[in-house]
Amino acid sequence: MLDAWIDAHGDRVQHKGNDRVFGAEHLSPAIAAFKHDAALEDIASAYMGSEQKALFTLGIRLRAAQGKKTRSGGRWHRDRRGRQFKSLVYLTDCVRRNGAFCIVRRSASPEPFNDAIAATGFSFPDVRWDDDEIEPFLAQLGDEVVPIEGEAGTLVMFDSSLIHSGLPIRAGHRYALTNYYYAADEIDLVRMAEKFSPSVRPFEMPRFGYTA
Ligand SMILES: O=C(O)CCC(=O)C(=O)O
Ligand SMILES: [Fe+2]
After folding, report:
1. Do the Cβ atoms of 7 and 33 come closer than 8 Å?
2. Which pLDDT tens digit goes with each residue over 186-196?
């Protein structure tokens, strides 16, 4: 389903190593249900300490390409420095070989990693790193670096201010959906439209503060 849509509407898909569909909730009722899932919004709100709604769902198609290092979401990074809730669901079985999402446990602050930082000179406060900058640091951490493997349908909830990356895909493919949550006062539709472009349809303000 994502395939057919991506292939028919290449102009509304971002192609950066992988194929990224901003606004995938418009492609199927099942994806819309994931975007609007009330339990996930409640968890997001509890974690962030303010009401959170998904502005859009991102659909991601990642495929192994001969001779290219392709990964989801680019290099190792933090989405930002402040706490941020995200939920991701795998649509295909996912292991390390086909690009598992990978996260560094407890990496919001440097304290747990003082020894590894001292040993490698790793620039912990940055938000994005080349592999050769971060690999010596990761090599010191052992099982603090957690690859999330799971079958199709696996839901991953994470704080995207922790250091994370999709592992480079070496074989096969990986399809996934990610919800982008915000508080009402964080959403500037003009800025969001520039940042997440192109999109399936223009973003609309989610309904906040609505109680039935
Ligand atoms: O899809 C992935 O494995 C990682 C994507 C990512 O960096 C993110 O959702 O913030
Ligand atoms: Fe990210």
Report:
1. no
2. 999 999 999 99
- Structural domains in the chain, CATH included, are 2-7+18-190 (2.60.120.620)
How far does the chain reach from its first CA to its final CA, in angstroms?
33
Segments of 42-120 assigned E as strands: 53-63, 85-90, 101-104
Kindly report the protein residue whose alpha carbon is nearest to atom 8 of ligand 1.
73
Pairing of strands 173-182, 53-63: antiparallel
Which-ligand-closest: CA of 179?
Answer: 1
What is the model's pTM?
0.94
Q: Which of 20, 75, 96, 160 to mutate to test the pocket of ligand 1 (most atoms within 8 A of CB)?
A: 160
Ligand 1: centre distance to CA 160 (Å): 8
